[in-house]
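hiii, so i know i said id send this last week but things got crazy w the move. better late than never?? heres the sequnce for the chain we talked about at the cafe, plus the structure i predicted for it. fair warning i was half asleep when i ran it
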Amino acid sequence: MQKMILGAAGLALSMIASSVMAQSLTQSEIDSLGGSVLTPVGAERAGNAAGTIPEWTGGLPTNAGQQLADGFQANPYAGEQPLFVITAQNYQQYADNLTPGQKAMFERYPETFRMPVYQSHRSVGYTDDLYAQVKRTAGQARLVNNGDGIDNFSHGSFAFPIPQSGAEVVWNHMTRYRKNTKRWYMQAMPQVNGSYTLIKMEEEAGYPHLMPDVDAASMPNTLLFFKQRVNAPARLAGNVLLVHDTLDQLKEPRMAWVYNAGQRRVRRAPQVAYDGPGTASDGMRTSDNFTMYNGAPDRYDWKLVGKKEIFVPYNAYKLTDRNVKYADVLQAGHISPDHTRFELHRVWEVQGNVKQGQRHIYAQRNFFVDEDSWLINLADHYDGRGTLWRVGEGHVAHNYVEKLPGYAIETLYDLLAGRYIALGMYTEEVSAPQYDFVPSYNQFTPAALRAAGVR
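okay and structure toks below
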């Protein structure tokens, strides 16, 4: 039985059904953000009683490590060694701080899966401007359509810094702090024997309030624009996906288009949502598995289980090291534990169950959401029989120069097939993700897809 951690001053609730609509925050609750109890984005400032989770003191400074060429950054914790290693032989003694998915990985791969556990560092910290925005907008956003969308929250971050329902925690992940981004990365789906083909991807993401030629006020329901191009292998090169995402997808559904290089045609792509197959994923992930979870949340009832202390993949700077090769990371069954790092952190657990009358290949999914970044760290996915099917890991690494946490790599392990997908690897690419990217709206129109797909 995992331990449930009740938050400071009773702010972390143990059980709240998502059908209960959140009440407006009181002024005293809003004032608590950035105070002695809560951090500016709603995490508990204090460490835990055992001293194994430290107090939040602002996160890593911008000079935490050396800024290297091509946007790469030095590992600020390079000199640290694991405190201990969890294996199939000893995981039961750490069971209170493990998820069902992690326990299943030890059972599935008893000889090779292990979790090196390091000292915990609360490295995530944002800008003063962001903290001011979170406090200014706290209590304004509201759930609509029984939590399936939000309104009165245009172009901000962290809609619900003091969440009162499972849906609000999920929306915090989807409204997390992000920047316009251009990145190149690799995706791979290793076979049972470990063999794989690298899929080279190129992506651009733009946010209306950060695009100079867009009047953000004219599109208050727009969350983001996203374009994804496959650059290799040759049989897939030139295929392009375009997505316009909204805050309330029942009011304005996601719009998606694909350009097929073989047909040289642009088509609407309603399948790019929910459990539609992910781009070039060989069926190893769904569309809404991308960035651990995205899109309209309307097919699930979301229950806030509570806060827990869990060993999560964190400060994953080994996976962003320019000297690490993809072949060093990818192996049969799961990525190499030599390049992973786990730390004890407080997370919110949210359970989603498919609503009556709805369908999804995942009948239940449990998210474990980092309190400091609101990023989903871990995700357990169950099939219609109640069997634990896929286990997701989001290996968080904080860009201390940009003040922006993100995923060094995302993995989704299929326990039944013995395969997995790994995406987001960029250590052998032309550069780390670029955040000085200034996109125009014309780059995210269907008319731009054909030009983007020219090989």
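btw The longest strand covers residues 300-313. thought thatd interest u
miss u guys!!
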